[in-house]
Amino acid sequence: MFFSLLWLSVMHCRIYTADGNSMREAKIFPLSPEIERGSTLKLFCTLGKHLVPRRNASHIIWKLNHDLIPQEHYTIINESTSSVTISNFTYESAHVRCFTKMLDLGYEQLQTHTNVKSGFSPEKPTNISCIYYYDINITCSWISGRETHLNTTYTLIRKHYDDGIQQWINRDTCQSNNGSCAFFFPDIPYVRYCFQVTAKNTLNSSTTECVPMEMLEIEKLEAPDIISVEKIAGIKQLLNITWKNPTVVPERPLCCLIQYRKMHSNDLGNITDCTNHTETIKSYNLMDLQDFTEYAIAIQCKGALAKFWSEWSEERTGRTEEKAPSRKVDLWRVIESPQSSGNRDVHLMWKLLEEFPSSESIHGYKIWYIPENNASSTGSTRNTTDKKITLLLPGEAYVLSVIAYNSAGESPEATLRIPTIGEITSKHIDSVWTFTLRKKMIVTWEASSVNEYVIEWYKEWDSEPFNRSWQYVSNTTNWTFQEGAFESFICYNISVYPLFENKIGAPYSVQAYFQEKPPTVGPEPKADYLGKNEAIIKWNEINKKHKNGFIRNYTIFYKSKGGKELNKTVNSNVLQYKLSSLEANTQYSAYVIAANSAGGKSGNTITFKTSKFNKEDLLYIFISLGLCMLFLLFLGIICTLKKQSLKRVCWPDVPNPAKSIVVGSEDVFMCNSLLKQGQSEDGMVGSEDISVLEPGMPHENQTELLLIKHENYESDHTDTGAKDVPNDHKKELCNEEHEVVKSVSPSLPYIDTEQDLRSQILSAVKPNRKIYPVEKLEEDFSKPQFSPVQNSSSKDNENEDDEHTDFKEAATFNPYLKNSVNTREFVVHENLPDCNQNESRTQSTAPFQKNTAGQSYVTLDMFGLTIAH
Questions:
Q1: In 782-818, where does DSSP find H-type helix?
Q2: For residue range 224-245, what is the model confidence (pLDDT) as tens digits?
Q3: If you ran DSSP here, which 8-state letter would residue 730 be given?
Q4: In what side-by-side order are the strands of the sheet with 478-480?
Q5: How many CA atoms lie within 13 A of 426 on its CB side?
Q6: 355, 495, 639, 855: least CB-packed within 10 angstroms?
Q7: Alpha-carbon separation of residue 636 from 639, 648, 834 (angstroms)
Q8: Half-sphere exposure of 392 toward its Cβ, with a 13 Å CA cutoff?
Q9: Mutual orientation of helices 727-743 and 834-844 as an angle, nearest 10°?
Q10: pLDDT tier at 793 (50, 70, 90 boundaries)?
Q11: Residue 454 burial by CB count (10 A; 0-12/13-18/19+): exposed, middle or buried?
């Protein structure tokens, strides 16, 4: 506050003593002030003289950043000066602006502005430390404490101790805006110094205590320079290192640290070498190294009393002398299934033990394989530079051996026995368990009378035999896998083999996960065998690389459209499930979740629709359709075979009496009348009897159609009754009638076609014939029959029999005649006039048939065949 008032007084003095021309601009003070955060800020704004006639202090307004400061915080000092007071200023940095209100112009005019910062007083620096870079500089650093948010200057003061006056005297200083500072070329390097730091800003200053330091303790030398790294001939496992020490004051004791490591390895070894005298060139023998192994070497040095090591020298490499391998290789095999020829592939692989020399010292490997039962055989030899080989061996037992060699010699022989195909050993492993404990895989097993075992493991999906790992163990039934042997979320096949009497027994194998997580992908389902109320959901097993654990179960989720979701859970060995009790002709959606101990993963969702009918429904429909088709086929065959019979039964050919014309019916009835009169008068019967077919006679049994034609009578004869006709006329009529009958061909068949029959009949009938109505014809036929009379003429009977042998005598009831009777006969008396005698022979040749008594007859159907159009 005092500083602000002092600054205000100074500025007032400058305003009143300055020349009038210099006050043409507005001024703000203090300019760019820095204040303690949370304190009160007071600023002044003075208008130039050219503004005072038109504006004064009452027109001044203040803004903090873009916010208007209320007028109650303003103070008018005089006509041209106004001040503003801001309490509790907490901005880290803010702009304060001075404006004048231009009422006549209607806006505010900026006159001047300033930037205000707030912060804190510096704290006392702590943890001062210095390093003396030999013959270069002294660099010191410290911790400045809290951030001040203001411009702070740090001053490093170096003092040396004056033994004469017994006090510290300022030597020199250096300034810095950060937490470090350096003195160059110290002129008195090995005296006692103390170091002090002062921190200062506009608010305050703070100074530390002077911290004393010994130069020999804070000294840091430059890095040494390695000259060579070489082996010594005849001395194994040794390298000689030569380097140049950093430059120091004579007779200064030094210590150097030698760091070495095998190439392509991060295993480090360190050896410290300290001497009481200084040498420019230093040599050291690095021993107990591995044979023919390349090493990388670096060195750093420091003074015997110093706390700081120099930087590391540049790395140099060297290789130890070669030595014959002293340890045999670690040998294993994988035997494939035998081929059809009886041979089998045997994959041999080996590795170098930890104590074994570097692989770079091995020039190659020799492999011998000899049949076990043929000791005299020299066997076969193979050479390779790889650590693996595949041999094709027969089914008998073989003994294999492998040695490693280099230019210095060979390793001991490693042997392995390959059993015969199908060999069974008495020693075996009873059971194997695996579990994870503290991020380590532990394998335990049970076996009897066995002390040595081989543990083999490989990734389940890896079929490459040379990617398998193995380890020999003895005198234990549990083993902890070394860290990094197993990857997480991958299934491994682990097998334990018993070893006894140079033989390898049958393994016991299990599968294990070092760590599990939910499957990466889910099952891909599909719907199959869709029925009316059921469907089968199938899915494939998840790929081994995506399981990430042992699948415990599968859960099928399904629901109909708009329905409730249901689920079914099945074991891990089930890859399909039959959903039942579904609704017919309904769309469903379904998906499957595969779950292991760490969680589950679902596959894609599928949709399917159930059928309207199931197999039984379709079977019933097909059977019904088949039976109907068979029935129709059978009915068609019957109709084809019995076409005529069915036609006569279902559609009989009944003559239409209304359309029929009986030809010569008047003559026929006249002849019949004459016959009746002759019989009644003479009591005689003609030599030939005319019989009518019994009703019901089949149509095909009728032989010929009897057509009776009469000559045209005079109109007076037609009206005369039968009893008034004299005998001569009767005879004439009968003869004429007989001639008409003879005019019709006796061989005329019974034809169903009316047109053909009409044409034949009408050609034989004279045009002047009288037509009786159908009613009269039926009336005449319904009259009582005459009794049949056997013809007495044996000669006529013989002729008649000869002429009618082709006619059938059977008579049946004819259904086509409305008023048919069983039998109707026309009997001619023997005592008729010459007509009877002359007609007997003529009628015997007529198309008449005999009845069972030998009498000729005519069917009534014959009269229906004469039809006139």
A1: 794-803
A2: 999 999 998 888 889 999 999 8
A3: H
A4: 429-437, 440-447, 478-480
A5: 3
A6: 355
A7: 5, 17, 62
A8: 4
A9: 10
A10: very low
A11: middle
- Tokens representing 190 are 């090995």
Q: Give the distance from CA 760 to its chain's centroid.
A: 91
Alpha-carbon 250 to chain mean position: 81
Residues 709 and 769 sit within 8 Å (Cβ to Cβ): yes
CA 131/CA 181 separation, integer angstroms: 11
Tell whether the model's pLDDT for residue 1 goes beyond 60: no
* Bridge partners of residue 38, in order along the sequence: none
Name which of 691, 648, 629, 644 is nearest 824 in CA terms: 691
Angle at Cα 226 formed by Cα 224 and Cα 228, nearest 5°? 165
β partners of residue 390: 347
Closest CA to 780 of 654, 659, 675: 675
Residues counted in the chain: 869
Question: For residue 42, which of 3, 86, 106, 73 has the smallest C-alpha distance?
Answer: 86
Of the candidates 52, 113, 128, 120, the residue with the CA atom closest to the CA atom of residue 90 = 120
Angle formed at CA 781 by CA 780 and CA 787, multiple of 5 degrees: 105
- Rounded Cα distance, 299 and 227, in Å: 11
Alpha-carbon span 454 to 169, nearest angstrom: 78
Res. 737: pLDDT tops 50: no
- Contact residues for 433 (Cβ-Cβ < 8 A; gap 6+): 443, 444, 445, 510
Predicted local confidence at residue 531, as pLDDT: 82
Residue 322 carries which DSSP code? P
Give the 3-state secondary structure of 279-309. Answer: CCEEEEEEECCCCCCEEEEEEEEEECCCCCC
Cα 733 from chain centroid (whole Å): 112
**Does residue 166 come out as left (phi exceeding 0), alpha (psi in the -120 to 50 range) or beta?**
left
> 275 or 854: whose pLDDT is higher?
275
DSSP 3-state assignment of 133? strand
Angle between helix 665-682 and 727-743 (nearest 10): 130
Instruction: Quote the CA–CA distance of 453 and 472 in Å, as a whole number.
Output: 6
Is the pTM above the cut of 0.85? Answer: no
Listed in sequence order, the residues at least 6 apart from 360 whose beta carbon sits closer than 8 Å to its beta carbon are 292, 293, 294
Neighbouring CB atoms inside 10 A of 72's CB total 7
Cα(86)–Cα(69) distance, integer angstroms: 9
Residue 513's DSSP bridge partners are 491
As beta bridge partners, residue 557 has: 567, 591
